[in-house]
Write a structure and sequence with these properties.
35% of the residues lie in helices and 29% in strands. By secondary structure, the protein is an alpha/beta fold. The protein has a 6-stranded mixed sheet with strand order 7-8-9-3-10-11, with helices on both faces. A 5-stranded antiparallel sheet has the order 2-1-4-5-6, covered by helices on one side. The chain is globular, with a radius of gyration of 18 Å. Bound molecules: adenosine-5'-triphosphate.
Length: 252
Amino acid sequence: MNGKTAVEIRGATKSFGTHRVLDGIDLDIRAGQVAAVIGPSGAGKSTLLRTINHLDQLDLGYVKVLGELIGVREHRGRLHELGDRAIRQQRSRIGFVFQNFNLFPHLTILENVTEAPRAHRRPTPEKRALELLEKVGIAEKAHAYPRQLSGGQQQRAAIARALALEPELILFDEPTSALDPELVGEVLAVIKELARTGTTLVIVTHEIAFAREVADLVFFLDGGRLIEHGPAADVIDNPQHPRTREFIGKVL
Ligand SMILES: Nc1ncnc2c1ncn2[C@@H]1O[C@H](COP(=O)(O)OP(=O)(O)OP(=O)(O)O)[C@@H](O)[C@H]1O
């Protein structure tokens, strides 16, 4: 952990139609920290995560990621917005792991992992991809297609793909929610291993016990608001807010 801020969010506000999904969220995550975002369904967790990667844009407030400002607006109009090229450049520093893996179905696992490094003209993409597939335990699937893999294997391939550009920050959007229960452990084990490497991780998860074990910081969202946050041991073992207590009581 080097103390630099990896993610700074201020006044994050967003509505879909008349439904306010994020309502004035402020949060900070330092480089090297592992942050878990928890909360009931519809709380705004995925939307918050997506704004960090510019997949969703804020109506108000700002997100500063790895020192760069993205999606800033004020009441009377937009103040600052990165251009497409800058967004692409920034995304190359951020890995994103989706709930439903989002692998390219027509490419082999190896091709899925080498696609971004090739596009960015990185050296030896294949060698690096094979190392990553080894790391997530599916090297033998390099030449298979996504449909030939179990959900857990596909998600591990997706994690290898997210690592291919050596991101400084990796965002996980409910990475185990689409998996059969017996496959959850193998994906969590890979994330746990990553957490030890000092890469900044932000994980939206329903796996509270996992968040307790792996996260440095936990953010509890409800109704688009950040209700409580702090070290995992405090928020999960000793929640202060009645809504956090109720949620933790239900899910643990
Ligand atoms: N593109 C969209 N258009 C309209 N409404 C949306 C869109 N994306 C999300 N929403 C709504 O915003 C609210 C928050 O969604 P979000 O996915 O951020 O919540 P969440 O906390 O991640 O929930 P879950 O745990 O169920 O995934 C939900 O009511 C959802 O239906």
